[in-house]
Amino acid sequence: MPRQVAERADILPKLAEIFRKRGYEGASLSEIGAATGLGKGSLYHFFPGGKPEMAESVLAEVDAWFEGNIFAPLRAIPAGDAAEARARLAEMCRAVDAYFKSGRRVCLLGAFALADTRERHAARVRDYFRRWVEAVARALVVAGRAPADARTEAFDAVACIQGALVLARAADNPPAFAGALARLQARLTA
Questions:
Q1: Which of 15, 20, 137, 161 has its CA 20 to 30 A from that of 62?
Q2: 2 falls in which pLDDT band (50, 70, 90)?
Q3: Into how many domains does the chain fold?
Q4: What value, to the nearest 5°, has the Cα angle with vertex 59 and ends 56 and 60?
């Protein structure tokens, strides 16, 4: 019997996990219903736009977490405070490790970027990664890097995180993700 859900927000973490596990195309409404404990009528009550609205809502929630916990803190570093920049870059690495459950959780935006349906969410995914690179680059400039070098290093940092997630999952070796993050943190805070 479907269970009662008080708010749409209660469903989003379960939707995120089914999209992480199955991808956008692979997540059928019956699987979504089973994962959330809701029937199709209840799903459409919360998400009248169907699966596209579900995916957009989940992506918006992930984006909001990263904006609040990663991007905004990096952008808010006071100019000239290199020590604070290094501290926030280290905190970014710790927060990313926690968010991705030490390499055990797939990056949903990364997965959507690679899927055959990538164009459906391309603008959101592009914006997410652009803001991440820009926030890291700004922090690196405050930490003392030249702007051009900071931009390249920031791109490499986000690529390292995403690549380490994929490799750790592919090899079923979550500690490899932690190791890559530790090495990245050392480079960013040097």
A1: 137
A2: very low
A3: 1
A4: 85
